[in-house]
Amino acid sequence: MSMHLTRIVCLALALLASGAPGECRTILDMDGRRVTLSDEISRIVTIGPVPVLNGFLFAFGRQQAIANGLPRELTRKYQFVFAPDLATRPVVQSSAGLAVEDIVALRPDLVLTMDRSATDKLSALGLPAVLLKWREPDDVKTLMRLLGEILDERKSAEDYIRYFDETLARVATTLGPIEEAQRPRVLYVNYRRLTQPHRIAEWWMARAGGHSVTDDRRTEESVTFSLEQMIGWNPEVVIVPDRAEVELVKAEPRLRDVAAVRNGRVHVAPGGAHLWANRTIEQPLTVLWAASILYPEKFPRAALENEMRSFYDRFFHVPLGKEQIDEILADSPGR
Predict the structure, then answer these.
(1) Of 318, 277, 322, 312, the residue nearest 163 (C-alpha)
(2) Domains of the chain
(3) What is the biggest distance separating any 2 CA atoms in the chain, rounded to whole angstroms?
(4) Which ranges of the chain have pLDDT less than 70?
(5) Is the dihedral of CA 138, 34, 104, 95 positive or negative?
(6) What is the pLDDT, as a whole number, of residue 330?
(7) DSSP code string of 156-205
(8) DSSP 8-state assignment for residue 186
(9) Around Cβ 121, how many Cβ atoms within 10 Å?
(10) CA 163, chain centre distance (Å)
(11) What is the pTM of this model?
(12) Which helix (H) or strand (E) holds 211?
């Protein structure tokens, strides 16, 4: 893009956003697209997996910059704990699609999404839409570096990446070498749909010292299976997304002899900014939590709680109390 054209785009962005001309720069998003942005990013709209995208911004302390609220179907209690003002923000998407006019009216300096079609649609309207991707585990590092560049928070991005690597290294050191045959068989399942919904779960189970029974090196994001297949796998640990599914699993008579059910090892995945079992900025905590339920003698509960307090204080700038830690870990109702 020529300097002259960049200046024109910059002026257009200023009119869409603050209304006052300012300096601009061009970045490459994770799809290789050139996006012209204002130097000053003060209003951000998140589109698509809103809790996931918001979590990235929480890690940069940018809660106040988020201009939109949470769609009803994506609402998570702790989004409002970490960013109370989200409750008063307008919702700009639903199952029916995007409220494009409402997005334009917010005059964002930046739109973040993981959906290419949304990026194309909003870019065509002159909005500064940046496409983020997180398919492979290490993509989160590229993503955080990109956001660090966009938000002029490179140090914060590198701090998170260092924490990510150090936490995984600590878990690996504590676990020590484990023969494949000695790893507990683990199933993460959306039981209502009999689906393992996210490939990322194969990664964090392995990092926590488990063997995922659904890990067939697939390239698809999710895998669906039958109850008979679940019984055949005979997982020693089952992880589900909410407390109601624990009761559904326990109530199914055909599962009574599955090792996880028989031995009381059906667990609810924690949920903070997002469900830890899925893609979330809290992924290092996911690995630590999973290791703590697979090897409780090596990873005591108290150490996990301390790590959580440190994480949310360090990155989200929100101190949590004992009751909140317990709730995130699914020990009490209301999540």
Answers:
(1) 312
(2) 3-132 (3.40.50.1980), 178-328 (3.40.50.1980)
(3) 70
(4) 1-22, 331-335
(5) negative
(6) 84
(7) HHHHHHHHHHHHHHHHHHHH----GGGSPEEEE-BTTTTEE--THHHHHH
(8) E
(9) 18
(10) 16
(11) 0.91
(12) strand 211-212
**CA–CA dist 103, 44 (Å, integer):** 10
Give the C-alpha separation, 149 to 203, whole Å. Answer: 27
pLDDT digits (tens, 9 = 90+) for 195-233: 999 999 999 999 999 999 999 988 899 999 999 999 999
Residues forming beta bridges with residue 267, ordered by sequence position: 239
Q: Which residue type is seen at 249?
A: V
3-state helix, strand, coil in the chain (%, to 5): 45, 15, 40
Cα 95 from chain centre: 20
Residue 69, phi then psi, degrees to nearest 5: -95, -170
Query: Which residues have a Cβ under 8 Å from the Cβ of 90 and sit 6 or more positions away?
Result: 68, 69, 102, 106
Interval 92-151: pLDDT, tens: 999 889 999 999 999 999 999 999 999 999 999 999 999 999 988 899 999 999 999 999
For tokens 């998407």, name the residue: 93
What's the DSSP call for residue 269?
Answer: P
Residues near 173 by Cβ (< 8 Å), separated by ≥ 6? none
Q: How far apart are CA 117 and CA 16, in angstroms?
A: 21
Cβ 299 vs Cβ 288: under 8 Å: yes
> Which residues, in sequence order, are CB contacts of 250 under 8 Å at separation 6+?
261, 266
Rg (CA), the chain: 21
Nearest-5° Cα angle at 305, 300 to 309: 150
- 194: tokens are 């009999």
Question: Position of tokens 């699609």?
Answer: 97
Q: In DSSP terms, which residues pair with 130 in a beta bridge?
A: 112
**Contact criterion met (CB below 8 Å) for 49 and 74:** yes
pLDDT of residue 21: 52
In angstroms, the first-to-last Cα distance of the chain is 48
* Residue 219: φ, ψ to 5°: -100, -15
CB 95: neighbour CB atoms within 10 A?
7
d(CA 325, CA 319): 10
Cα separation, 143 vs 100, in Å, equals: 25
